[in-house]
Request: fold
Amino acid sequence: MINLEKIYKDAGAFLEGHFLLSSGKHSKYYLQSAKVLEDSKTAELLARELASSIKKSGIKIDLVCSPALGGVLAGYELARALGVRFIFAERVDGKMTIRRGFEVKKDEKVLICEDIITTGGSALEAGSEVERLGGCIVAFAALANRGFCKRVGSEKPSTPTCKLPNDVPFFALGDFEFDIYEPDNCPLCKDGSIAYKPGSRGN
Ligand code: ZN
Reply:
């Protein structure tokens, strides 16, 4: 059994501070999955575990697609573990787009893979682009779930914040549940510190 929290902590990927998230919200913690996936052996191990639960479900996958940049390493490893193709979607002028000659064939069964699913916004956007090209979204997957969306194997229901559709299964290796705050209601701001973007101080 995978101890996801230990893996993230051991890799220095479970950061504590005062973070400004891409959603505009603030958090005391940040998950830097790239630090976990820097170790290719760990990446392979995590992807195999995720692939195993997807295979057990009996869902057939033709293709994995990830939203760039965060989902690409996890998605590529997962595609390798599943023995299927991998493509990615990227933002062009703010819109999630599939470029680089990547193709989605009509009715291909596609899994959308992220490193972390928070509300699932980027995953859903990548999924819409795949569907526009004729693909069919049959599952979502991530290394970790932030606890807002219901994942396969967990009893905890989706919260209203979750953007993933209820009728498509979502696979993850575990949950990381911690609070995120609106900037005007952030206890860390009230204590006088300033939120910074993860990565902007070398992490
Ligand atoms: Zn704050």
Q: What stands out?
A: Residues 13 and 35 are 5 Å apart (CA to CA).
